[in-house]
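Support reply, case 0932

Customer input (verbatim):
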Amino acid sequence: MNTEALEDVADKTIESTIPRRPVASLRDIEVLYGALYTLGRGLTGPYGAYLTPDAAADQIGNETLVVVRVDLRGEKATLGDPPVRLEMFPEDLVSRVAHSKFSAAMGVDHSITHQSGQTNGPEKHSDHAFERLERWPTEDAVIEAASEHDDGWLIETLAELGEDDSVETKIREEVESLVSKEGQLLHTVAIAFDDDVLTTTAQFQPDEMWHYPGEIEVLQEAMAARKTGKFRAKNEAEDASGDGTCFVFDTDETVYGVVDDPMKHYLSKQMEKFPALNADQSWQTQGLGRDAAIRAQNADTFLDACAIPAPGTSAFYLPYPTGKIDADSARAVYELLSEQVEADDEESPVGNKYRRLKKLDRLDTIRFSLIIVNKYQKDRWRVLAATPTASIHIIEEITQQHRTVQNSRWVEKKEIFPKREKFPLLSITEPEPLSNVISSVAYLGETCLGDDADDPSSDDFRFRGTATIASGKQLRVEELLEEYVAKLVDRFDPDSQYPFPIATLAQQYVQLNALRACDLLTADDERLVTQPQHMSDQTSQTTANNRQEQFEQFIEDHPALSDKTREGVFALGALVGRISRYQSREGKSMTAVKQYPIDNLTKHNIRRIATEVVDSNIVYSDEYAGTMYGELMDTVCDGLETAEPTDWELSTQDLRFHYAMGIAYGQNDSSTSETNNE
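Our regenerated output:
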């Protein structure tokens, strides 16, 4: 799309097509996007919004226009000579040919101009050409429009020609002589008439002899009537229209209740979501007038450009102006949307907009509406989470902080939480693709288990959490840790050579600290939301080949481990991790990490487990001159003896997550052996 297309469009023209109030609903956004798309494609006038040039994009610029010619200049209507022509279809003919096709998969053309199938041969093309006279003029909506228009006689004349066998023969023979192979073509009509016989549109070319449908008002009005009829009667609705106030434009007019919705929110097919819905009365709630309804249909291109897909779901980040919309703010949104349409797949719908708005000093003029949907059928989507106030500031800040944690000392390649290529929260480091991941549901999907993947619901934490952090609100750490633990338990594989999912834990570690740094977490224990010191300017360089000093440095770097009990639990995990590596080197199949999985750890049994693990370490130590991992044993004992487990304030999920973090530490400490374990 031309990103500068609206620069020369008059303010009055823009403001006549857009909602003139602050955005208050998804319908407002759809109508705004549809209006901007239509203006950007140069489709103006009362029928411009009905045209769908992109539906025939493959035909533009090629000899793909089959034109049935009707001459009205004599005593009676006749076919032209020749009766049919195969013409070039250049871009500047789009508005005059006036193709209108919505819901392409259903193949519904509302205009007299009709698009054939992709593999149609000569015989089928002759059908399509003849149907411009035999079928389209006899559609109920077209007949009704003709009866209400002074030039309705033209439609009646076309229908009469369609009843003439000789006309049919001429058209079919001519088409089959012109079209020799299969392909997709556009079929239309051209009319020759004397001046002032017909009311024309702004597209009328007075110097031309043959005039296409877009130049003739009655053909355009009939096309609009066909489309409008779909707003009134569809599925369960026989007549979902009435006198009311347009939900978007606040105008008193005929409003419609079963208007197609590109985001699938307001479809009559969704009746199972609204058991008491009376489709015929649907116009009384959120009814749209004709202009608003048709503009909403044109929003697809811009809506699709704003989607970040993930398996089974899509997250739509929809920009809209803050405050009342005027021509300037509409142009700003158009530029963002049209740039996104032209962007490649790597360019984030959020990140690049942030940088552009920041450069133009317009960050405060645009907001985003985030809608996460499950597309469980082509025309039926389920809303999983939504917020009208998503912030690109937050997404950008998380991106920056996530990169900072990726480069921190404990996440380096050979450190405690090693980077792995197949794990996006560890391996993706460039701002643009990382911003894409963070703004999608995959960010929490990589670290949290969620509910049934085959039947996602709005109760799923991954979706609720994505909308929460995108709007700059805080997540409860306790809930996040519960999801983390569930993911680790799900990924734990006791039959694997490397049973513990260290890379998943590493992704959780990076994410947890990025969210901490952005102040997006809240907890009763402030230490759980305090940023680790190794991410601050006070980073200590103590190190690191001394095992005890490194352990002490890790504890010091992480404020959450300043709680003695939590420190003891972490040390227990570290001891299990170290012993497991020792057991693996000795060829033992039953390692400590398999014997004491994280989901078995409770306040009730932790002291028994700690005793067994310490005893095992002592037994293995007998094979050496001294005690192995003495610093860990001491910390385990000190931490777990601070109080009775029943009196601990740690939740079970807190206990299990920090036990898991300890396992990762113990298995990856550089003073131990190699770490290729997941």
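We compared this against your earlier run and they match. Two observations from our side: The chain is about 40% helix and 10% strand. Residues 263 and 524 are 39 Å apart (CA to CA). Please reopen the case if you see a mismatch on your end.
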